[in-house]
């Protein structure tokens, strides 16, 4: 039964920014269902509403109209605390920007979700080092996050998204500002996680090549779904 | 997030912009430093006074005087009172203007003796010797008072005169020791001095007395020499020669001992019973209370300045943390996205404020205590040399803790504004923030 319940689903999703003169409809009647273990690409031009959709799916933002459900439960019915726990334990985030704390070490940055979850310091270090190993950055663990190259930073960000062993990873332009070789390595890493651990992938991109590697493709144009509903 | 992790993170965060944190801490430091010094002076002086009171000891002594009764007159007690030929009043006005001192007689003494709780009553008589003469051959003016049993007197050398002794005894003030011709305080003990006193007709007689000891200088204790009952009686007898029986039967007041086991409530009750009978009874502590009130009023004014400095510092805390919230908008957004709750973000920033308060107050208090030690050392070797046991500044641990905790609380209050702003940030707005 549970395999048939989508991890994430939306009904008649609508997002309106601003009001009066500056009112702007960023998303319009979005209906999607994402099954467990699927890899989804959200494709579209700049400003089409990809990040907006991803934020709503990730329960970081609320839709103006419509319903988002997680494992069959209407997210708007969940308490703030439940939502916090859900994001902390089930979701992993790779944002469009790195959002690394420049003054902290690579390891400290990676273990932030575990720290928030209240995991003990010993356990945090252990799991942090494991995940850094999987992105081949274990010898950079004690370096300041600021001292890494762009590609290394992106790998740190992915390590951070993985450290809490999430069910769903949201990745906003994970390869957007990387050279093609590094980009390919990151992609490989994400798809390995998807295949081997069954982690659901939701990747926002405007790269058609990357989108093609996903199980399914959702294309957005000016806030409406033109393909893959 | 665990409590220890929040505190650790807060501590790391405040040191991320070292200069800003340092400046904020300095502002709090100044407030804490000032507050510690001003309360230190208050505590130092009142500790000394308390010490003096307990060194005077005799907690069960009441100084009793007649009360200027205003019940017969209407209106304010400072209003002029009607003359009553049946009431004895002192020839010279000794009390504050408007008050007339009511003298006591033997009848009063007998009446006081029958008051329940009062163990013994002695009329407060005084003797005024003309001079004291020692081996140096030079006569000096001296005031004397009879030693009140139960009183503790800190001594430089020797002991206090004994009221049960049958010989005449005196304790000479510390500054009389050398002028009377003694090499040291210890040298004076056991030696004999001569006291001259005149009777009502102006005829001077001499009485010799043995020095039993030399007391230390004291702010509150009696200024003159303490003499025992035997010497007092001898001097009084000489002084009374030529006085009418009537004038001998007038006393400025009485000294009473009451039941030493009395509690504060019982003492208050005793005083109010005396009050009903037309007498005013005061313990030594009552007399001292006025002095203490004046000192604490002065200290409060100083404290007010320190608190103003702290208020200014708390705006520094608000400012620092607001800047920090601004700078760390993205970080806060990220933490919220990763499931950190509002209350935890609030707690994180409040902890930063409280830590700023802690460091500022802790360092300020430490510095003030250090400076206090130096001031005490300079003062006790300088202008306070003669006051044994007086430390100008005292820092009882409770005061110090109150100051630190109080400042941490002020810092917490100051931190609530930035902390609320941080906890209220919408993660998406925070993440989109450039
Ligand atoms: N807080 C906001 N207030 C007003 N308009 C907003 C807000 N956030 C986003 N928008 C608008 O919504 C639209 C969609 O933005 P979104 O960030 O989802 O685009 P995107 O598809 O991710 O683009 P990109 O590929 O450039 O990242 C844009 O036109 C943007 O200006
Ligand atoms: Mg985007």
Task: Write down the CATH class of chain A.
Answer: Alpha Beta
- Unreliable stretches covering 5 or more consecutive residues of chain B: 70-75, 90-99
The largest β sheet of chain B comes out as: 8 strands, mixed
Radius of gyration of CA atoms of chain B, rounded to a whole number: 32 Å
Core attributes:
heterodimer; A: 229 residues; alpha/beta; Rossmann fold; six-stranded mixed β-sheet; four-stranded antiparallel β-sheet; globular; B: 434 residues; 2 domains; eight-stranded mixed β-sheet; 14% strand; binds magnesium ion
How would you describe this structure to a colleague?
- The complex is a heterodimer of chains A (229) and B (434).
- With 229 residues, chain A is of the alpha/beta class.
- Helix content of chain A is 35%, strand content 26%.
- Chain A contains 8 helices and 10 strands.
- A 6-stranded mixed sheet of chain A has the order 6-7-8-3-9-10, sandwiched between helices.
- Chain B is of the alpha+beta class and 434 residues long.
- Chain B has 2 domains: 3-54 and 290-432, no CATH class; 60-282, no CATH class.
- Helix content of chain B is 50%, strand content 14%.
- In chain B, strands 3, 4, 5, 6, 7, 8, 9 and 10 form an 8-stranded mixed sheet that branches. In chain B, strands 2-11-1-12 form a 4-stranded antiparallel sheet.
- In chain B, α1 (3-14) crosses α10 and α8 (284-327) packs parallel to α11 (397-423).
- The longest helix of chain B has 44 residues, at 284-327.
- Chain B is elongated.
- Residues 70-75 and 90-99 of chain B have low confidence and may be disordered.
- Chains A and B meet through α2 and α4 of A and α9 and α12 of B.
């Amino acid at each position: 039964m549970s395999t048939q319940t989508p991890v994430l689903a939306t009904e008649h999703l609508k997002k309106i920014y601003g009001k009066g003169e500056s009112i702007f409809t960023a998303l319009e009647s979005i209906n999607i269902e994402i099954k467990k273990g699927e890899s989804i690409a959200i494709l579209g031009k700049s400003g089409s509403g990809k990040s907006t959709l991803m934020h709503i799916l990730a329960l970081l933002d609320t839709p103006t109209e419509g319903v988002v459900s997680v494992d069959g439960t209407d997210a708007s019915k969940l308490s703030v605390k439940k939502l916090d726990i859900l994001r902390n334990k089930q979701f992993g985030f790779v944002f469009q920007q790195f959002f690394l704390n420049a003054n902290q070490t690579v390891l400290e940055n990676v273990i932030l979700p575990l720290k928030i979850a209240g995991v003990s310091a010993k356990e945090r270090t252990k799991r942090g080092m494991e995940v850094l190993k999987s992105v081949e950055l274990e010898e950079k663990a004690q370096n300041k996050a600021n001292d890494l190259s762009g590609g290394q930073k992106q790998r740190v960000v992915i390590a951070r998204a993985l450290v809490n062993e999430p069910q769903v990873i949201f990745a906003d332009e994970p390869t957007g500002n990387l050279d093609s070789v590094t980009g390919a390595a990151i992609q490989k890493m994400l798809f390995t996680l998807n295949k081997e651990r069954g982690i659901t992938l939701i990747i926002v991109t405007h790269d058609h090549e990357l989108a093609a590697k996903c199980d399914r493709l959702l294309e957005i144009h000016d806030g409406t779904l033109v393909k893959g509903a | 997030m665990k409590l220890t992790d929040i505190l650790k993170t807060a501590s790391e965060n405040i040191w991320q912009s070292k200069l800003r944190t340092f400046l904020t801490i300095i502002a709090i430091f100044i407030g804490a430093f000032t507050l510690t010094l001003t309360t230190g002076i208050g505590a130092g002086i009142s500790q000394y006074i308390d010490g003096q009171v307990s060194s005077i000891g005799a907690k069960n002594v009441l100084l009793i005087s007649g009360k200027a009764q205003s019940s017969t007159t209407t209106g304010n007690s400072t209003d002029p009172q009607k003359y009553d030929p049946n009431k004895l009043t002192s020839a010279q006005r000794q009390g504050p203007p408007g008050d007339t001192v009511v003298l006591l007689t033997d009848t009063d003494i007998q009446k006081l003796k029958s008051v329940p709780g009062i163990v013994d009553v002695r009329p407060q008589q005084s003797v005024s010797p003309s001079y004291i003469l020692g081996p140096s051959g030079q006569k000096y003016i001296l005031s004397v008072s009879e030693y009140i049993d139960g009183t503790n007197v800190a001594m430089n050398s020797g002991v206090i005169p004994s009221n049960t002794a049958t010989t005449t005894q005196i304790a000479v003030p510390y500054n009389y020791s050398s002028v009377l011709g003694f090499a040291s305080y210890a040298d004076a003990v056991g030696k004999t001095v001569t006291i001259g006193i005149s009777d009502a007709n102006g005829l001077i007689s001499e009485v010799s007395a043995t020095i039993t000891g030399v007391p230390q200088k004291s702010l509150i204790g009696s200024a003159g020499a303490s003499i025992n009952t035997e010497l007092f009686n001898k001097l009084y007898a000489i002084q009374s020669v030529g006085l009418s029986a009537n004038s001998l039967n007038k006393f400025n007041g009485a000294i009473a001992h009451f039941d030493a086991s009395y509690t504060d409530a019982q003492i208050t009750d005793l005083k109010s019973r005396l009050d009903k009978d037309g007498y005013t009874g005061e313990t030594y502590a009552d007399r001292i209370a006025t002095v203490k009130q004046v000192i604490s009023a002065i200290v409060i004014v100083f404290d007010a300045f320190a608190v103003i400095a702290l208020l200014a510092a708390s705006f520094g805390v608000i400012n620092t943390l607001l800047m920090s919230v601004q700078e760390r908008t993205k970080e806060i957004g990220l933490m919220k996205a990763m499931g950190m709750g509002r209350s935890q973000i609030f707690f994180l920033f409040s902890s930063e404020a409280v830590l700023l308060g802690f460091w500022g107050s802790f360092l300020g208090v430490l510095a003030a205590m250090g400076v206090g030690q130096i001031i005490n050392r300079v003062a006790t070797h300088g202008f306070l040399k003669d006051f044994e046991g007086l430390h100008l500044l005292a820092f009882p641990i409770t005061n110090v803790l109150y100051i630190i905790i109080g400042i941490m609380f002020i810092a917490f209050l100051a931190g609530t504004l930035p902390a609320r702003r941080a906890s209220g940030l919408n993660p998406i707005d925070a993440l989109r923030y450039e």
